[in-house]
Amino acid sequence: MHATDSVPNMSLPRNSSTGEAFQHSSVRMNLENSDLWKSFHNIGTEMIITKHGRRMFPHCSVSLSGLQSFANYVIMMDMIPVDGYKYKWKKEQWEVAGKAEPQPPCRTYVHPDSPAPGSHWMKQSLSFLKLKLTNNTLDQHGHIILHSMHRYYPRFHVVQADSLYTVRWGPFQTFSFPETTFTAVTAYQNPKITKLKIDHNPFAKGFREGGTHSHKRCRTSGSPSAKRATKPAPESPQSLKRMPSHTEKPLTSTEQPQKGPHLSAWPLEQDSSDRLHAEPLDLEYDYSCEEQMVPASLPYNSYRSVEYGRYPYPTSEVEPSNEQPPVHPLSTAEYPAPQHPYPHPYPYSNTVDWSQHPLFSYSCW
DNA sequence: TCCTCTAACACTTTTGAATCGC
DNA sequence: AGCGATTCAAAAGTGTTAGAGG
Prior knowledge:
By secondary structure, the protein is an alpha+beta fold. Helix content is 13%, strand content 19%. The chain is globular. The relative contact order is 0.21.
């Protein structure tokens, strides 16, 4: 499995009264299963969110290097909206459906091993397998709350702190990976995503081999769902529409959306991590049809992350219009967001910075 | 009518306690 | 008694899909 390096910003760290910030400039984070992420990213990753919480697939797994062996660190992860839009799946592609809903309560997932010394974090990769996503804004289980049909990317924080209580004052560094951008959904929209998940996710083995068991499933007449099942599922138009199929007509370049932001395919050409990791993906499927939908390569700039508080997003200025690209949640007046022809799924680089400023003044634990 | 969300389903994998053998 | 390997049931997690609701 190849890893995607998240290279720290080479700009000098801010002055630190302790001087510690300078010692962290060599910290690096790698995305462990980046090939798998890219496979999904090529199609347009979708993550199921449910009321009771659903794990991510692919899940986030990263490795760290450059930490101080004996210093304690807390590793955290949160989800950041990619843009100020809500989306809908229409005619086999994503389209803008309007402005984003007001942000749900922002939560941060703390890696269960935290706090732990740098040697521990560097010994093996960190898995965020157990993190769950929910659309329940009243969730009491600590799951990360997202809006369905909105787009997010995970962000990782490495904070030097001896306990969870001192995290807010510890120097921190933030990383993100462009290929981990996803659309939160309550039911899969793109059948290609479904197929890819079934082929890679062991829990979905029951749905493998070209068709689902639900086709063969014989619901008992006494079961609640059997009472609901008044129509034969396999032949229904909806089931045909949703069913992954090898014979599905591939999208052509003429089927590309012609207006506004579209997300049917997120090209690797836009991915800065490819510059670090450029070998071709060993994919089981041919997604060349999606690559035809790729817009021109876009610049990929680095930005400094600023964590002083909840970023002003979404704002009233963010309109679902091509004329006003979304503002990067981490952007500042000093480092404004880039101007892109599309609301780019990842209009910034893996953002890193060390700061002496309090972290996550808005987070809930 | 369209779109989104929910709950129940069948199935697989994971987890952890109990048991066994050395 | 202690340790590691094995077994097995329960729990957890998966995508599917009909129906509800806006």
